[in-house]
Sequence to fold (402 residues):
Amino acid sequence: MAKPPATPPTATPTMLRRVNAGKVLGVLTRARVMTGTGLIEATGLTRATVHAVCNDLISMGWVVELDPGRTSVGRPSRRFEYNNNAGYVLGIDIGASKTTVLVSDLRGETVAKAGRSAAGVKTPVERTEIVHETVIEALASAEVSNEQVLVAGVGVAAPVDREGNILVDDEFWRRFDGDLAKRLTELHGWPVLLENDANLATLGEHWRGEARNIDDLVVLLAGERFGSGLMDSGRLLHGSRGGAGEMVFLKLIEGVGDTHGIARIARENGTAAVADPSVETSLRTLADGGEVTAEQVFSAAAGGDEVALGILQEIAARTARVIATVGILFNPELVVLGGAVAEAAAALLPDLEKHLAGYTSTPPRIAVSSLGDAIVSVGAVRHALNYVEQHALDLELGCRPD
Fold:
């Protein structure tokens, strides 16, 4: 027997107050100065509601009212500005080999950045300590205290559901000393918002990257492994348990066979070529007896090395199958290649576009991210700012929601 449709929650005065405050703050954070009339037009709220909300936000310190200036006719318009110094947010990217922390003001401008390698880390306690130490370094550089931080967005390489929960048996959790979000809150006092790293990369690209004003989007993190963030009509897709965008299905795709990313394939194929004494390649000199890096493969290809060029052609053909599959399934307007390998991956675009044309009659446009290795942490800042806008009244009153 089918279940009856769920009854929508009743709109209480408190809920409406919070929603309206979020609308006003959302506009003010993206504009330098707005008049009351401008806010009415931008939010769709009535004049009385806009002024009541602004008065609330001014009393709490979120908004500053500016001098209306002189006017020759009629009553001068009230002018409002978001107080971007009311607090700070953190954007934290916890990668497999490095943790990056951005400290940002409430307009999303970076105040400080810190990064620490996790190379050589062996125990969960050590890995958690690396994250903690990177946070301390970033806050010290910004001269910001824990009390001034309103919330931290944290990107992790694991499926995360809409409520910010990770499956308890996920491999990611086993790398850390207990519940990472809870531990960071215990250490620093601010709430932690967990989100999948590729989803945050998508938020970052949509906010400040190649995908501004594009609402149907796929971002592929393509470094050591492929991971994707999906946006449809401006909304992130999570799936029922946070698994939307997971790329395990690539094991079933002919010509792909696994989730290995561009950097890993370049490194492994380059190392194999150097190990073969019959192969003549400048990679042998670049590696100088060590393991070949992805950067060296791209560098050698740029210098005309035939072996390196062949490796990139193989990578382009393989990556085109990945993009074509995602493009057919989700029909995005744009696919962005992101991660540490993004800048070098620009060399792949001509071959990628050629292969894609053979797979589908309506291929998506492809771009490489301009955010570099900050792509996830920038998205984590955006995630944190969204939370601040939605919960500003609670945060100002000292009631930080769970």
Notes: The radius of gyration is 24 Å. The CA atoms of residues 276 and 284 lie 10 Å apart. Residues 397-402 have pLDDT under 50 and may be disordered.
